[in-house]
From TrEMBL:
This is GH15 family glucan-1,4-alpha-glucosidase. Residues 3-168 form the Trehalase-like N-terminal domain. Residues 591-615 are annotated as: Disordered. Residues 225-583 form the GH15-like domain. It comes from the Bacteria.
Length: 615
């Protein structure tokens, strides 16, 4: 039995890792040590890489949903003879509530099977494979506990039913009758040391996870703007993508899910991109509260350290690691035959000058929380502004992380302008008068260059690189960072050309040959239209996009414009962040239409920043 399609998966999280379980009841992805650790279930990338399925025997239908305000998943299977429900939860630390959830994950997956009607034969198939499927574990059954050990991992499965252990895994066939409950708890631990894998009561795991997630949701209930329900769901997904110990938000839960079926652009997104930083902070600010935003800023400052002469790092591991060297897992066939399967991401070696703007924009957003400014933060921001002065003239790999050649990408220049503009706004808090004058002069040079060399009169649009005739949706960032007003004639023309040439039913490709619609770019278009005063048009595009989530409200990175199939790594944090901020731009446009003055509080902070993995 093969893994379900990308969009058929639900997402569970515990602040350290993520589980993907498909609508047929199969856990097809779990890296229990942390998001970027080796998997113990990897069927998503190869049928032989491990899974754990609990499903009815024979034909059935399934419906599923999250329990309200949680990432606890309930799937109801209906057969000709009855119905059963499977509830899946990753454990939070017992008793953790509010902002403490996810900081000390016990690394436990609980599954509870309940008989709802009639009787249903249910098959349990437990097939762990360690280190991305390279290691088959030794299974031993000792008094109702099944231990699996091999390589750098130990698992312990506690079950209410006896399972038959074989060489490859353990199986059981049970008949579940109405009113009966069967519980399964799977715990992880490193191979050596005194700590054993935890196997707490499954009902308690579920109850504690429900209480923990709901306590977090209750602290983030202030958003009253447009599309409140989908904003709240996306905010919870972003929280689920947050690595609890550091507060960093990973780009996605997976590696190597392809941009194009059968293609080779299959990258590892289980890391943290500086490019995501400003826009992530906006979304957390809008849909959550400043606590998460403060943790994000503290994390990036610590991860970057003191800036020297080397290229500014553009991405990190979850604890701030810099070396993310990429290698292929040649033994895996890849999702739907899409190879290579990669671990690590060599984009960490690139120069991407747009990240300078991301950090200074985020600092401007957080300016009231940075007062008084600590010496280390001041040094970091000054160094980044100075780097923008020297580096804006240089080509780079761009936000899509091109691996063929460096170019003078317009979006990189615009974000260098953002860095310099925010530094000038900080003024004496960041530098002396000579510094501010130098930053302002460079800012004006960047702006003049972009307006001259980034504009293509024949196309009637800003293009992806200087002196180019190739469209690129990244130029939609220009109004979102206040480089140009959205109603500037050149910007309005660019928006029209980009939408006409690259969009279909609200889905916007990045460029002409992009294989699928890119979700975050589509939401940038919504923001531009809203800022231009085209509220109805922006709302229509937003609703087209919002309708493209899966049945649990989850997005991948891309969506095929023709078939609607989700592609790329999943769930994609920035697709959800794009939704949150687009809803905020629509809310702000409504307030302006009602006569809000320039000094009124805005529901969306001014700046934004893009994101993507290796491009």
């Amino acid at each position: 039995m093969q893994s379900g399609r990308i969009s058929e998966h639900g997402f569970l999280a515990d602040g350290s890792s993520a589980v993907l379980v498909d609508r047929a009841g199969s856990v097809n992805w779990w890296c229990p040590a942390r998001f970027d650790a080796p998997s113990v279930f990897g069927r998503l990338l190869d049928d032989r890489a491990g899974h754990w399925s609990i499903r009815p025997e024979g034909g059935h239908t399934s419906e599923r949903s999250y329990l309200d305000d949680t990432l606890v998943l309930r799937t109801v299977f209906t057969t000709a003879t009855g119905a059963v429900a499977v509830t899946d939860a990753l454990a939070l630390e017992p008793g953790a509530r509010g902002h403490d959830i996810g900081r000390r994950s016990p690394r436990v997956l609980a599954r509870v099977v309940e008989g709802l009607a009639g009787e249903v034969p249910v098959l349990v198939d437990y097939q762990p494979r360690f280190e991305y499927g390279m290691v088959s574990a030794y299974l031993t059954d000792s008094g109702g506990l099944i231990d699996a050990a091999g390589g750098g991992c130990r698992l312990r499965l506690r079950a209410d039913v006896a399972l038959d252990c074989g060489e490859d895994g353990a199986t059981a066939r049970i008949t579940v009758r109405a009113g009966e409950t069967y519980r399964f708890t799977l715990g992880y631990a490193p191979p050596y040391g005194d700590a054993q894998p935890a196997t707490p009561d499954a009902d308690q795991v579920v109850a504690d996870a429900v209480a923990g997630w709901r306590s977090w949701a209750a602290l983030h209930d202030d958003y009253q703007g447009r599309y409140r329900d989908v904003v709240r769901r996306s905010a919870m997904v972003v929280q689920g993508m947050t690595y609890g110990p550091s507060g960093a938000v990973v780009a996605a839960a997976t590696t190597s899910l392809p941009e194009q079926l059968g293609g080779d652009r299959n990258y590892d997104y289980r890391f943290v991109w500086v490019r995501d930083f400003s826009l992530t902070l906006q979304a957390l600010w809008l849909a959550a509260c400043p606590d998460e935003a403060n943790r994000q800023f503290s994390w990036v400052g610590r991860a970057m350290g003191r800036i020297g002469d080397e290229p500014v790092p553009i991405m990190y591991g979850l604890d701030g690691e810099r070396d993310l060297t990429e290698h292929a897992l040649d033994h895996l066939s890849g999702y739907d035959g899409s190879r290579p399967v990669l671990v690590g991401n060599d984009a960490w070696r690139q120069r991407q000058t747009d990240v300078l703007g991301e950090i200074l924009d985020a600092a401007w957003l957080m300016r009231y929380y940075l007062d008084p400014m600590s010496p280390d933060v001041r040094h970091l921001l000054r160094a980044l502004a100075d780097r923008a002065v020297s580096d804006w003239r240089r080509p780079d790999a761009g936000m899509w992380e091109a691996r063929d050649a460096e170019r003078h990408y317009v979006s990189s220049k615009v974000q260098c302008w953002t860095a310099l503009d925010r530094a000038v706004r900080f003024g004496s808090r960041l530098g002396d008068p000579a510094d501010v004058a130098r930053w302002a002069a460079a800012r004006d040079e960047v702006r003049a260059a972009v307006l001259t060399r980034g504009w293509n009169e024949r196309l009637g649009a800003f293009t992806g690189a200087f002196d180019s005739d190739q469209l690129d949706a990244s130029v939609l960032l220009m109004p979102l960072v206040d480089f140009l007003p959205a109603d500037d004639p050149r910007m309005r023309s660019t928006m029209d050309v980009v939408e006409r040439r690259l969009s279909r039913d609200g889905l916007l490709r990045r460029w002409d040959d992009d294989p699928a619609g890119f979700v975050i770019c589509s939401f940038w278009l919504v923001g531009c239209l809203a800022k231009a005063g085209e509220r109805d048009r922006a709302g229509r595009v937003f609703e087209q996009l919002a309708a493209r989530v899966n049945d649990l409200g989850l997005y991948a990175e891309q969506i095929d414009q023709a078939t609607g199939e989700h592609l790329g790594n999943f769930p994609q944090a920035f697709s959800h962040i794009g939704l949150i901020n687009a809803a905020g731009h629509l809310t702000a446009a409504d307030e302006r239409a009602r006569g809000a003055t320039e000094g009124d509080p805005q529901p969306v902070p001014a700046g934004t920043g893009p994101r993507e993995g290796a491009r």
